[in-house]
Amino acid sequence: MSPARNEQAEARVGVEVWWVGVGEARDEFARDLDEVERGRLAAYLRDVDKARFLLGVTLVRRVLAQRFSLPAARVVLDRTCPECAKPHGKVRAAGVELSVTHSGELVGVAVADRPVGLDVEKVDPGMDVDAVARVALTDAEMRELSGYDGIAKARAFTTYWTRKEAVVKATGEGLRGDLRATVPEGVQVQDLDVGVDHRAALAVISNATPVVQVHDGTWLLG
Ligand SMILES: CC(C)(COP(=O)(O)OP(=O)(O)OC[C@H]1O[C@@H](n2cnc3c(N)ncnc32)[C@H](O)[C@@H]1OP(=O)(O)O)[C@@H](O)C(=O)NCCC(=O)NCCS
Ligand SMILES: [Zn+2]
Asked: Does the N terminus or the C terminus of the chain have fewer Cβ atoms within 10 A?
């Protein structure tokens, strides 16, 4: 492929992001889950964790059902962890790249044609920002953070944190990735606006800035 055509292809990197609220979970969604997912769902102790997991699965299944014109229950998903083979890894499906995230009131899914990482975190106003920041932030981020106080500081820290998690989720490394590292070359990271209580970020393995379409997933749940 010529460099010019390559650039054109890079220019069309598209990502869909779908959000729903944790309160939108319904027991009937569990009908579309596979055996592995039913096992995972049953193992969560708290209702809110069940709801988050169920909504993540349901969003993935319904977005792919629409894309591939299949019933949601027929979408084949693989959650095998490359480390230990248990079904708690990054969710995968043939022909598409996915990322799932849940925190606080929000559940989100990103769908793309190249590796993608989506992360949302609820801002915790009571967190000990300085303690966590020391192990997670670069010196430049630490300096920026020192300009904030109180809830603004917690928000700023959470913004950095979601960017880092989005990157390690895109690469598939997870939290064992080096959080203090700067964003590697060939990874595009952007913040997504999800309101004041949460921070969210999206990372895509690409040399071009992706075109991101954000959707309210509520109608998919209807
Ligand atoms: C992936 C990870 C960064 C997500 O952290 P989090 O902010 O607490 O949770 P989020 O809700 O944003 O993300 C959870 C989703 O990430 C996905 N995920 C799991 N492992 C992943 C990985 N290595 N890379 C990318 N995504 C991953 C899953 O789809 C999961 O959702 P689901 O199981 O409900 O479908 C973190 O859980 C992690 O690092 N896990 C791997 C830890 C590890 O070393 N595992 C090996 C154990 S043998
Ligand atoms: Zn594992």
From this structure: C
What CATH number does the domain containing 76 carry? Answer: 3.90.470.20
CB of residue 45 inside a 6 A radius of ligand 1 = no
Domain that holds residue 172: 3-209
How far apart (Å, rounded) are the C-alpha atoms in residues 222 and 220?
A: 6
Ligand 2 centroid from CA 82, angstroms: 7
- φ, ψ dihedrals at 28, nearest 5°: -60, -20
Give the ligand with the smallest distance to the CA of 79: 1
Report the separation in Å between the CA atom of 174 and the middle of ligand 1, taken as the mean of its atom positions. Answer: 6
Kindly state whether residue 190 falls inside one of the protein's structural domains: yes
Say what percent of the chain tops pLDDT 70.
95
**Measured in whole angstroms, how far is the alpha carbon of residue 115 from the centre of its chain?**
11
State the CB neighbour count (10 A cutoff) for residue 55: 26
pTM over 0.90: yes
